[in-house]
Amino acid sequence: MSFTEISQDENSYQARLHIAVDHPCFDGHFPQYQIFPAVAQIDIVLDLLSLIFRRTCQVQAISKAKFTTPIFPGSTLVIKLSEITDHSACWALHQQETLCSSGKIVFE
To answer: What is the pTM of this model?
Structure first.
């Protein structure tokens, strides 16, 4: 996966990405009802943070995480990172106007 349409304002970033129908995570999650796993959503957050900070970011803690709407194969997502510091950020992951997940991540 790669981010497209990355934009930045004062203390936030926004990026778009497409989840391919044949993404490997769908093989095991779940074969009869494929959804994009929460752990993969956290990985998207870390990938964008790594791109922003130009270093590999690893999760230290997650708080206030909510996974509210399933993400299906072939979805296009918009991720917004806000309240960014050197070691934490809030995220919101949307599919069109629908919030799919949100939370705060602490990373190193």
So the answer is: 0.93
Instruction: To the nearest 10°, report the CA torsion of 20, 5, 65, 69.
Output: -50
Quick: pLDDT tens for 16-56. 999 999 999 888 878 789 999 999 999 999 999 999 999 99
Count CB neighbours of 70 within 10 A.
12
Count of other CB atoms within 10 angstroms of residue 79: 22
d(CA 26, CA 23): 6
Q: Which amino acid is at 15?
A: A
Phi, psi (rounded to 5 degrees) for 25: -65, -25
